[in-house]
Each structure stands twice: as C-alpha cells, then as structure tokens.
Amino acid sequence: MLFTATIASWLLAASSVYASTPATSLKWHWLNNPGVQPVSPIGRSITVQVPPDTDIWRPAISKHNFTAPYLYTTVAIAHFQSVQVTVTAPWKTLYDQGGLVLAFPNRHNPNATRFIKAGIEFNDGAPALGVVATDILSDWSLSPITEKQTTADAKATILVERDGTDAWVYVVENGGQTRRALRQVTWAFNQDDGQGLAREVEVGIYGAKPTEESGEGHARDKIAVTFSGFALNIV
Ligand SMILES: *[C@@H]1O[C@H](CO)[C@@H](O)[C@H](O)[C@H]1NC(C)=O
Ligand SMILES: *[C@@H]1O[C@H](CO)[C@@H](O)[C@H](O)[C@H]1NC(C)=O
C-alpha cells in the first residue's frame, strides 16, 4: 500500500514538474572551466581539457577543494533515479581522474556541500575504479579494472543509481549486461542523518588532475578526459 502510494506520488510529481522538461532540455553549467560554453553531454561525446592542481576532495573542514572542471545540471531530489557515463583518458600520473559527480549543495555553507564522485583514478602505477563519498569529510575506495580493455587508454562505464535512501555506485561491464557494485552510500537520499535532505542534486561529469607533470616545461600540461554515453534517468 505504502509502496503503491509512494510510486503514485512520484508519478504525480514527475508529470507536473517534468512533463515539459525532458532530460534533453535540462540546463547545463560549467564550474571551473572558464571560457568554455556548456553543452548537454546527452547524445554527444565531450572531451574536457583538465588543468593540473585541481581536485574534488575534502580531507578536512578547512581543506574543502572543489576546483575541478565540472559540467552539471540540477535535478530535484525527488526525481533522480540514475546517471551513467563512459570515461576514458590517457591516464598516466598519480591521481589523474574523471567520471561522475553528484553534489548535494548546502545552502548555508558552500564548503559543506556533500558529494559522491566515481570514475577512473590513476593510483599505484595503474588506472583503477575510484569512488569518493563525502558526507562531512571525504573517504576514498579503489577497485581494480577487471574488464578487458579495447583501447590503450583505460575506459570504464560508471553508474550511480538511487535505491530508496541509498545511492549505489556500479561499474557496468560486458557491454552493459552486468554490473559490479563499488559502493553503497547510505546518506545520499536519507533525511534521517541530522543534516536533512537537500532538495536538489547537481549531477554531471568532471575531470581532475591533482598532480602536475614532472619534467621541464610540463608543469601546466593538461589531461584530456573524454566522456560518452551519458544517460540521466529522471522520473
Ligand atoms: C586543490 O587540490 C589541488 C591538488 O592537491 C591543489 O593543487 C590545489 O591547490 C587545491 N586547491 C584548493 C583551493 O584547495
Ligand atoms: C571555504 O574553504 C576555503 C578553503 O578551501 C576557505 O578559504 C574559505 O574561507 C571557506 N569559506 C567558508 C565560508 O567557510
């Protein structure tokens, strides 16, 4: 009964708010990418030139860092279902990274934005699947890329899906036929954690390059991170 009622209220809300706003007409914004016009990543491939000394990471309250180029749109929390993207780049330097970000803005303090970032990150001499979840402070997990790679530059398809009050992060493998769980984030859509539920979630793609290249004249080298197959499922 409750389940049915919940679905019904979602459908009602969805039809009233989003009937005239399909995913293809959402507004997109660039954060930290001056001079670049935002375009929707839906239905096209996008390559982002990511400068060094950038990150999305909060290891201490006083060290909130949200300096990476981030192309995002804003979705009402009630309507978010899932987001997926395929990411690749010539990863070669410690912490080179790119993938999805979900950010839950905090109206009272921009430094307290909660976020999930998930994608590929270069660590221990190889690209891996990395997930950072930041409620108060950031924590980070890594999983190996186990799927056979078809290109020299590691590629992965990352999915973040809502399941009740949780967000689950998956890597999608076997041409979309299987998914492997990387992370369960219990605070994502939970109103019961003392911080209250954000009304909106910012959803999009990012690349970051915390480490400068070594070698004379290479400190400002960028990494080109490419995204394809972006899919945003809102109800
Ligand atoms: C963000 O992190 C990068 C990489 O560690 C660093 O170079 C940069 O100075 C930091 N920026 C801020 C504003 O903390
Ligand atoms: C946010 O954090 C930065 C350091 O990353 C600091 O310089 C700034 O003062 C903080 N702003 C607020 C409102 O706390």
Overall average pLDDT: 90
Outline type: globular
Instruction: Give the termini separation.
Output: 20 Å
- CATH topology descriptor: Jelly Rolls
Gyration radius, in Å: 18 Å
Strand content: over 45%
Helix segment count? 1
The beta-strand count equals 15
Bound molecules: 2-acetamido-2-deoxy-beta-D-glucopyranose
- Main sheet strand line-up: 1-5-14-7-8-9-10
Q: Give the CATH level 1 class.
A: Mainly Beta
The oligomeric state is: single chain
Protein name: Glycoside hydrolase family 131 protein
Pfam families: DUF1349
Keywords: Signal
Signal peptide: 1-19
Can you describe this structure?
By secondary structure, this protein is mainly beta. The chain has one helix and 15 strands. Strand 11 (155-163) and strand 12 form a beta hairpin. Bound molecules: 2-acetamido-2-deoxy-beta-D-glucopyranose (2 copies). One 2-acetamido-2-deoxy-beta-D-glucopyranose is lined by residues 53, 55, 65, 67, 210.
Secondary structure topology:
Blueprint: H1 2-18, E1 29-31, E2 46-50, E3 56-57, E4 65-66, E5 70-76, E6 80-88, E7 97-104, E8 114-123, E9 126-134, E10 138-143, E11 155-163, E12 166-173, E13 178-185, E14 200-208, E15 223-234
Antiparallel strand pairs: 1-5, 2-15, 3-4, 5-14, 6-11, 6-15, 7-8, 7-14, 8-9, 9-10, 11-12, 12-13
Bound molecules: 2-acetamido-2-deoxy-beta-D-glucopyranose (2 copies).
Pfam families: DUF1349
Protein name: Glycoside hydrolase family 131 protein
Keywords: Signal
